[in-house]
Design brief:
- The chain is built from nine helices and ten strands.
- With about 260 residues, the chain is an alpha/beta fold.
- Helix 3 crosses helix 4, helix 3 runs parallel beside helix 5 and helix 5 packs parallel to helix 6.
- The protein is globular, with a radius of gyration of 19 Å.
- Bound molecules: adenosine-5'-diphosphate and magnesium ion (MG).
- Adenosine-5'-diphosphate binds next to helix 1.
Length: about 260
């Protein structure tokens, strides 16, 4: 496995008497796709918030590019956050702005680029993500899948080193969800960022992941591939696989059917 861009070392996070992460260790390899999976309430979103310094760990270290975010001040944290692009469930587009204005917002607010440069960059990303011709539409005029694409286009504008996706296909039917995951994969290959995708299940598409991290009862298990998970002897993991990896077996059977 290549060099780690993020590393959790003995991280503990509790809310009251509930210990969500219990001395957790794992590494996120640079330039690859890591899927963080696990049932509802197992601490997936909490893990992303810890990485961004939006929540404070009780103990342990969270290293981002070798620097521990758990002991950073606001100023230093803000600097680290500029390395990240985030796409959370709702895509969080501004309804009163067009697609172009939504996507260009980070460039307008955070850079000194000229209008021409901004237009060039935004239109290029829209084309890459299959959104050409939609720049003057408003979010309400877009399908669920297109909204996710616009959210991704916006998150990419500041050229993040690391993209965080929190259950990014929520609200899409399975076919559309697959399309979006495929697009994420293509985009990750093109842009070369490190990708962390949180999901409450393990869709077939995660054959494209370089690593799967499963959160379960405060503990973490790391697998090199979704196939590896099927070989786990852990009863909780077995149960999770049975519940969420039906797709994999189903598709294999279909492929092998005469
Ligand atoms: N700010 C908070 N205050 C109290 N409890 C929280 C807070 N954030 C998350 N939790 C609890 O921590 C657990 C993990 O939450 P979360 O990471 O959001 O789960 P998920 O894996 O579904 O994303 C849940 O039981 C949740 O209720
Ligand atoms: Mg969550």
């Amino acid at each position: 496995m290549s060099e780690a861009i993020i590393q959790f070392v003995e991280v503990v996070k509790s809310f009251g008497s509930q210990r969500v992460l219990d001395r957790v260790n794992f590494a996120i390899p640079v330039g690859k796709t890591t899927v963080i999976a696990g049932g509802s309430g197992q601490g997936k979103s909490v893990t992303l918030k810890l990485i961004l310094g939006l929540l404070q760990a009780d103990s342990g270290q969270i290293l981002v590019e070798g620097k521990d975010v758990t002991c950073m001040g606001r100023k230093e944290l803000n600097l680290v956050r500029t390395e990240f692009g985030v796409l959370f469930q709702g895509a969080a587009l501004l309804d009163s702005l067009t697609v172009f204005d939504n996507v260009s917002l980070p460039l307008v607010e955070r850079t000194a680029l000229s209008r021409g440069e901004i237009k060039e960059r935004v239109m290029a990303t829209l084309a890459q993500l299959g959104l050409e011709g939609s720049e003057n539409k408003f979010p309400a005029q877009l399908s669920g899948g297109m909204k996710k694409r616009v959210g991704l286009a916006r998150a990419l504008q500041l050229q993040p080193k690391i993209m965080l996706f929190d259950e990014p296909t929520t609200g899409l039917d399975p076919e559309k969800a697959m399309e979006i995951y495929q697009l994420f994969h293509r985009t990750q290959q093109q842009f070369g960022y490190t990708s962390i995708i949180v999901s409450h299940d393990i869709p077939k598409i995660f054959n494209l992941a370089d690593q799967v991290v499963i959160l379960n009862r405060g503990k973490v298990n790391t697998f090199a591939s979704p196939e590896d998970i099927t070989r786990s002897e852990d009863p909780d993991i077995k149960d999770f696989v049975k519940k969420t990896m039906g797709d994999v077996y189903l598709s294999r059977e279909m492929e092998y059917a005469p």
